[in-house]
Amino acid sequence: MADDNYHPSIKVSALDAGHLTLPEHLFITDADPEKRATVPSLSFLIQHPGSSKQPPTKLLFDLGIKRDLTGYTIAQQEHIAKRQPVIVDPDCAASLRNGHDHGTAPSAAPLLDPAKDIDYIILSHVHWDHIGTWQDFPSAIFLVGAGTINLLKDGAPPHYPSPLFTGDELPPSRTAELPPVPRIISDENHPHYIPPMGKSLPKAADTWSWKPLFEGKIPHSLDLFGDGSILVIDSPGHLYGHINLLMRVGSRRYLYLGGDCCHDPRILTGEKGIALYDDGCGGKRSVHVDTEVAGQTLENIRQMIRGVEGSGVEVEVVVAHDAVWREKNRHRFWPGTL
After folding, report:
1. pTM of whole model > 0.90?
2. Which domains does the chain show, CATH number per domain?
3. What is the pLDDT of residues 105-122, one digit of tens each?
4. Which H, E and C letters describe the chain, residue by residue?
């Protein structure tokens, strides 16, 4: 699984992409019912140096929050009102241009130009705090999990009805869905797949398929570029089409970007559980469309981590809303690297 002769090539940098405020009792067990925490919605810049299978490529994983909140639907704005304070500056595009200190003068050349320098944008899922402003990236191809296009049109009721989404949230001519994940029980919420768009997609797209990883601890992974450097991980439970990324950033180091597999890292470590609360219909719900499946996704990640313990291999997991991680790792924000 690890090669001592491997020289790190994939570079990953964290990006500020807005903040939102979460009432803890909706997300973790044994929470103070009055406590609210302002947390980041992280984005990540991933730089692939190129190979015989792939030219040099820059990707983004998630775009965070729109800088203009009026760009959300009325229903989304009503939901966002419950997540105040919401901070939109800097958004993803500003972080790419200016870096983590956000001190670049307006006349200075940008570190990266969102309009020209980003090749692909991979969204973990399409909740409002991850979709960002796609118009900032007119040359990028968007890659999303299977079922996402239908989700944007029809929603994921009862917990996430259609007014919380909009069908024009992604550029249709530049958006491709990953192949559906084969499942023992067919899921009619994962039916849609946009055929590969020729040269616009990675060269490996013609052979994309889902395969087990880490001796099956991760049931479904997809090799994005066909070289083992960036693996898309099927991560069901939170929202239809939810995906994570696993990247090899050193000979014995992996970085796992967990999106919203959980909203607090203490759930992953087992210190806390997934909160359940009144669904308004006499039952209980969580922030996930399927709490049991989301729990299994977390267990898969835990098993992956436990499976490499003692082997000298490190897997660092970063979830999208980890405020503690952000404060401890400011030096790893663009132009720094993870």
Report:
1. yes
2. 11-332 (3.60.15.10)
3. 555 688 999 999 999 999
4. CCCCCCCCCCEEEEECCCEEEEEHHHCECCCCCCCEEEEECCEEEEEECCCCCCCCEEEEECCECCCCHHHCCHHHHHHHHHHCCCECCCCHHHHHHHCCCCCCCCCCCCCCCCCCCCCEEECCCCCHHHHCCHHHCCCCEEEECCCHHHHHHHEECCCEEHHHCCCCCCCHHHEEECCCCCCCCCCCCCCCCCCCCHHHCCHHHHHCCCEEECCCCEEEEEECCCCCCEEEEECCCCCCCCEEEEEEEECCEEEEECCCCCCCHHHHHCCCCECCEECCCCCEECCCCCHHHHHHHHHHHHHHHHHHCCCCCEEEEECCCCHHHHHHCHHHECCCCC
